[in-house]
Amino acid sequence: MSDTGFPASARLSRIGWDMPVGLDEALIRRVVNAFYADARSDPLIGPVFNRLIPEDHWPRHLELIADFWSSMLLGTGRYGGRPLPKHIAIPELSDVHFQRWLRLFRQTVVRICPAEIAAVFIERSERVGNSFRMNIAMRRGEDITTMGPLQREEI
Length: 155
What we know:
Elements: E1 11-12, E2 18-19, H1 25-41, H2 46-52, H3 58-74, H4 83-88, H5 95-112, H6 115-139
Antiparallel strand pairs: 1-2
Helix pairs in contact: 1-2, 1-3, 1-5, 5-6
């Protein structure tokens, strides 16, 4: 292990963290496509996605999400959106939705990625999920001072 907690087989990237060898655009696209295929059919979060994103908008949405992960993990800077306002606008969005999103995402990356890359995706997705839920709660006027990290939904 390197001192960052990632395997020593990782390489230092231009974005200043140890990036596992093999983490690239093609893998990001595979993860995004596989995850959203599963998420859209999930009984809890599928209806939310399918209500908000028309069928003909899915190809562009998948590109946008791949750009998000590419910017976050590879430092490409391709994503210039503001995802939080769109999530704030979903009134039913709650911890159970974030927990399911994270569980499905973990399942996807564990299935598709080598362990060290899956660990990177999982750490970042949990950071994003917790940040979004706290910001949403704050915007709804909820007290976030006692909020801890999301409990993982078991796989």
